[in-house]
Amino acid sequence: MGPFAPKCVYNNLKQIRLTYVGYMFGVFVEGNIYFKIFKEMSTRMRKDKAIAYILLIFIGGFIGLHRFYLGKVGTGILFLLTFGLFGFGWIYDLFTLGRQVDNYNYRLAYTKSHGI
Questions:
Q1: Complete DSSP assignment for 19-67
Q2: DSSP-assigned letters across all residues of 69-89
Q3: Residue 109: predicted pLDDT
Q4: pTM score of the predicted model
């Protein structure tokens, strides 16, 4: 575990709990930060797991369309040029794409809630 290891948990109360444990500035810290996901967050901006998996499996996983969909242009170009990292990246994304979509949506909610 690094010096500061946050963990995000989405619960049914429409809020995100950020749990952190570790050392910060030489002091051991542990606690939770809660912030609400705004209902006015546009659904157009959120990404859907089903669409991401369709892009990965059926349409263009080996050329990185799912990566472009999640705003990961750099790795999208890398997938495009290396045919899905020679298939290994495609297999990796097959197991981690749901988490990648969740992380995108969490970052979106965080930026909306903090006005960033």
A1: EEEEEETTEEEEEEEEEEPPTTS-TTTS--HHHHHHIIIIIIGGGTHHH
A2: HTT-HHHHHHHHHHHHHHTHH
A3: 83
A4: 0.62
